[in-house]
Design brief:
The chain is an alpha/beta fold. 46% of the residues lie in helices and 19% in strands. The chain is built from 11 helices and 12 strands. Strand 10, helix 10 and strand 11 form a beta-alpha-beta unit. The longest helix has 31 residues.
């Protein structure tokens, strides 16, 4: 994953762009009927069940919109919530609360859904040594939020983007002329460009796994779309030579079985691309 400084910068960019998109030259609905001097208070009302996420993000949004707004946190990120819970109160200029409202809700609803789904996978893996990973299958422009939500739900972040890790998948291998050529070219590239990036290589069968091991220098092997039996064979073949990761359509029904095959990680795009937003509201009090 990227550094904390890079991650914080991504969050700042998300907030600035979202406010630009939503507010434009002004929230004319509020400007038309609410005096600039009016102060108000609102509560974040939970109308669903699951894991709450995005409270710390909401604080950043409120501060960006108006540094004078104050937030009283009642429930922390990562906590279980139920219908009727109040996550926080925000107090300040009424116009500022309304300007921030939609971004706060849109982000928190999606982040909470992702955290909730991630927690389901984490619970299913309890008692094993396998960690659940996210992927790059995220919503364009808000990847940092979605990966943040995965961490809140107890998951582990995979690489953030194309620039912070080498990941040689089937197309890279085929375009390069094979597994060994792809790996050797990658090693040369990293040396020539003086980059220190970990290498993950996808394997489609046991023969490719052996080719990867013969090349050496690989951080993790992606055991992609293997059945349980072949996954166990792959894990035995790899041993402690590098880390292992299972992927490919793994869901709540199969994740435990793959973990029991002995893999170090399981990656699932479903954590971020197949969720239903948690129902949340920001209500004046």
């Amino acid at each position: 994953m990227i550094s904390k400084e890079q991650f914080d910068k991504e969050i700042e960019l998300i907030i600035a762009n979202a406010i630009r998109e939503d507010v434009g030259d002004g929230d004319h609905s509020s400007l038309a009927c609410i005096p600039a001097s009016a102060n108000g208070k609102a509560k974040l009302l939970v109308k669903d069940e699951g894991i709450i996420a995005g409270i710390e993000f909401a604080k950043k949004v409120f501060t960006y919109v108006d540094a004078d707004m104050k937030v009283e946190t009642l429930i922390e990120d990562g906590s279980k919530v139920k219908y009727g819970d109040i996550a926080f109160y925000v107090e300040g200029a009424s116009q500022s609360i309304l300007k921030a409202e939609r971004l706060v809700l849109n982000a928190m609803q999606r982040m909470s859904a992702i955290a909730t789904k991630t927690k389901v996978f984490v619970d299913l893996l309890e008692g094993t040594s396998t960690q659940i990973l996210d992927t790059r299958k995220t919503t364009p422009g808000i990847r940092a939020l979605e990966k943040w939500a995965v961490k809140i739900g107890g998951g582990t972040n995979h690489r953030f983007a194309l620039y912070d890790m080498i990941m040689l998948k089937d197309n890279h291998i085929d375009f390069s002329g094979g597994v060994a050529k792809a790996i050797n070219k990658t090693k040369s590239y990293l040396k020539e460009t003086d980059r220190d990036l970990k290498i993950i290589v996808e394997a489609r069968n046991l023969q490719e796994i052996q080719e990867i091991l013969d090349c050496g220098g690989v951080y993790r092997i992606l055991i992609d779309n293997f059945n349980f039996e072949d996954t166990r064979k792959a894990v035995a073949l790899i041993g402690d030579k590098c880390l292992t990761e299972s992927s490919g359509g793994i869901n709540e029904k199969t994740v435990r079985h793959y973990a029991e095959c002995g893999v170090d990680y399981i990656s699932s795009g479903a954590l971020t691309h197949s969720v239903y937003n948690m129902d949340l509201s920001l209500k004046a009090v």
